Amino acid sequence: MSRRISLFGLLLLVSLLAIPAFAQTTYDWSMIGSAGHVDPSSTSAYAHAGPALKFATGWTGTIVARYPVTNTYGSATSFSPPWQYFILSYANNSALGSVSARLMRVDHCSSDEEEMCHVNGGNTSGANACGYCLFNPGELDFSNNSYYVEVTMTRSAPTATPQVNTVAIGN
Predict the structure, then answer these.
(1) CA nearest neighbour of 35 among 11, 60, 67
(2) 41-97 pLDDT, tens per residue?
């Protein structure tokens, strides 16, 4: 009996180690897709569908939405959170559609922008999926920079149904 329990314990440990690290991420900052600030050039093309950001019926083209990142770490008293994962939750049913997201840093004084991390969402056959990228823990510095996430969705045919469910940052 104890050998069976030991074997079970070993299998459980191996299966837990096989879970990608980002799946164990604590999302310290997150935003639903429909809460993004849609670029004025995209306002006719988008629709809110519950928490998701999608294309309006019949529209094609490009939608750009931006999500301001706020410091939620340590009751916002620490200016350098240990976050290291940027996560995009999305769905896309066709090569005629695409979803991508960038985590951007903006210097407070110069307004210079820099891309920190980029996620390209692939074809998920319409199912929900997560894509992520990794940056250095402690690389965010809210005392000197502001941050935002920029999401870009495209579709060249109304049959494509790309959508953004959430964007998140965590460790």
Answers:
(1) 67
(2) 888 898 877 899 999 999 999 999 999 999 988 665 678 899 999 999 999 999 999
Q: What is the pTM of this model?
A: 0.83
Structure tokens given for 9: 């314990």
The answer for residues whose C-beta is within 8 angstroms of residue 38's C-beta and 6 or more apart is 46, 53, 63, 64, 65
> To which residue do tokens 């996560």 refer?
87
Considering Cα of 51, then 53, then 56, then 57, what sign does the dihedral take?
A: negative
Distance CA 98, CA 116 (A): 20
Alpha-carbon distances of 98 from 14, 60, 108, 130, rounded to whole Å: 35, 12, 32, 14
Question: How far is it, in rounded angstroms, from Cα 142 to Cα 49?
Answer: 32
Rg, the chain, Cα only: 19
CA–CA distance, 8 with 5 (Å, rounded to integer): 5
For residue 31, give the H/E element and its range: strand 27-32
Q: Is 88 exposed, middle or buried (0-12, 13-18, 19+ CB in 10 A)?
A: buried
